[in-house]
Automatic annotation (TrEMBL):
It holds the Pfam family LGFP. It comes from the Bacteria. This is LGFP repeat-containing protein. It comes from Caulobacter flavus.
Amino acid sequence: MDSTATLAPRIKIAQVNDLTNIAARFPLLSAPVQAINAKHQALGGDGGWLGKATIAHTLTPNKKGWYRHYQNGSIYWSQATGAHEVHGLIRNKWAAMGWENSFLGFPTSDELQGGGAGRLSAFQGGVIYWSPTTGAHEVHGLILEKYKQLGADKSYLGYPVSDELDLGVNNGRISNFEHGQIAWSPAIGAAASATTYQPAASSGGLIKPQGVGGDGAPQIRRRLVCAAHMYLTDHETFGSNEHGSADKQNEAVLTSDLPQDVLTMQKGAGGEMRVELKLIGQVKLSGDILIQGSALLYEGTSETTNDLDGDLDFTVLVPRDGVISRTVTVTNEDEGGDSGVISMTFSNFAA
């Protein structure tokens, strides 16, 4: 974030380069001047990345704070927020919105590291997020609150790709993100969706997020691909053990609404045993997929026996945009050394 807007003076209170030495003669100036200078020194002073001052300490146009521009950014101070630096493309965005006169107000943090290669700066009335692929955009109000609840820039939504927008329906508001949207309306408050929003004619034009139920909970859609390999051993007390194997793969689009069956398979071996596998999946609000698995081992006089001698329940968490493998073993808990080794691979990507 090396790009910096032109740092032009705004309202100067004195034609001097530095008010530090005269702050003691003007007590009302002491706090902001010293705070701005201290922040500058903490960031490396004239030799730091902000560089040297380009204007004097200056009263903001709304008379609620002070600021000073430097070669590579600015430091703003107010009684309520203290002194914080703003620079680069986030500073440019704030400037375009009206600086501290905008609804964002004064900065409440320095620029911070976000998820991945992104950055963010917090303000009294919201947050400006930036990433190399999305640029700088603001998020505020109840949409920001919902965004933070989901994990903000580290959530499945990713970084904002728009400022907050007027949906044009019954005072509705909406913010777009890399992988979804958050909208607000008087009917449902703020709700997230991995798809889109549309007016709901049946409710007098109020916002209806697609894939969101009456409780306002978001529906997250993910594509799961799972593959399983079974290797069975039918243990023989006399003679050689007998074996069997089977493979199966399935692809399913899952949502956060309800659990869904994603793979069912069975295989017999030795004419006496059978292993059954069942996998159920459901998407979490984070975009991860929770797999609940059940492996059952039957052993008797035939492969169709209903004599259950072993069972194993297990879970697998498949990370969003990730691939994971898991191997489990179900054994005969009643007699013999019969077993079924099940190797599975899962992938979880956008649907």
